[in-house]
Here is the input.
Amino acid sequence: MTNFDFDVFISHASEDKAGFVTSLSNELRKHGLKVWFDKFTLKVGDSLHRSIEKGLARSRYGVVVFSPKFLTKNWPQAELDGLFAREMDGHKVILPIWHNISSARMKDALPMLADKVALRSSDGIEAVARSLVEVIRPELLELDNKKASAFEAADTFMAEARRKHPGYDFAIQSGSFSAPKLTGAPSAIANAKQRIQISVSDPAIIGTSPGGRIEFFGEGARKAIEFVRTGKPQKWESGEFRLLDWNVPLMPTHVEGSTLEVGIDNNLLNIPPKYMRVEVRSRPPIVFPIMEMKPVRLGTDEVEAILSDKETPLSISLVFSVGSNSLSNASREIDFTLSWETTGKKISECKNLIEAIDALRRGNVLRLIDIRLDKPIFESKARVASRTDPFAGTLRRTVLLASQIEKEFSVSLRMPEVVSEEDGESLLHLDCLLNDHPYQQVNDTQLRLTKADGEVGAGQLAFIRGELSATYTDVPSNYPGYFPLFGQQIATRNWVRVVELVPKEPCACLKEFSESPIGTQFSIEITAKGPVFLRWRDDSILRNIEVGSLAQLQL
Here is the structure.
């Protein structure tokens, strides 16, 4: 039996994608079909036969959307003759759809196909998709019917639960759930794929608060103490706990074994955030002006809060003891950890991040200031366990150079997920232009020189003697006026490649040159005194002593 990657591919004209094909593809996927259509969009000049052959090699069925635009594509009669020869074992594998096209138009254009039974897009996306599913994978429609029956049964169950347990409300949620969550409200009973959500709809009716008791044993007791003390999520395995005397509807009154998980208290989500200004070092401070601080766990002895901001790459986790007058004592000991994500963040913010981490590695102060009170709530020197640079060298260089580019050309950049090859080329050129870094090395080459008279001839002689160097400038012929960088175009003035040249052996042809008549041609080996540099184009650079043609020199 042939294994296929997809249930169906859709061959169509590119002009029909937005109006019909994309919606059809989405509807087929809703029914559970594996659909591939982007790779088989026909454009002018494409071969219909090759496209369909290629698609059928990976798909069980092929859908061909015939439309006025489709008929304008290039597909010879020979291809049409073999188009439907792919019928396998007597059943159809190519399913036609007529889209915005009449029977008369089809007969005129494709008389051999006009009589073949086809679906029509005018019947509607849902009807066309259902007809295709009936042919391609009819069992999926049976599954839809079973799902509908299951939902009806679930509704009946929920209505009966509400009748038997007044004051409570019930709902079935589908998805992937790890384990029953027994903290916070509402409570829930769950398995891996569904859970019943139970909430209190009328406290006056139920009278007593819903709940029960949990007994812990051995290692389970240690976990329970740790959860109460720190608020850190815990998981108890079979034998470490049991539930007793639960009065929640559908909850067993006595359970021993299974698994119990306690996570973050949902009530923490209702605590309003504090807004902080974060400063690193003192003179001058590196500032993150507004960061939101929210608690993520709360215990009797320990609290953890996270400071973050969507525009700031830095996140700060603070863990502090709640036995020291909450957050009011800025001088007490607090543990903190730093994490960051630079992708998509402003380059200026990424530069701030690097400078802040570097300062903290050197033992500078981290200070949190409550914006509303304009009062420090925390101040501490960093405790760095390792001197290893946490930033990859390429990231550090990219951020610092991009920050310099922002200032030089008054642009705003964001850090991409991946620095493309094109971005790398632009960074190299701009680094050389802004920071006078060498661009490349030049190999030894030949200089064709025609002896001249007067001042030019004197300059040539001085060059051969090694008393004078020649500056060669190369103007790029294909520079568009900008460098593409991180999805933007950094417009700049024109620039040139510059290298200083001298004879490789200054005296090799000195005697012959001196004794030769004007107009004699020489070939002189030359070498570069240093690497090629990039310079902003300036007429003073281009006015050099003429030493002959340097057309053979390639930079």
About this structure: The chain has a mean pLDDT of 79.
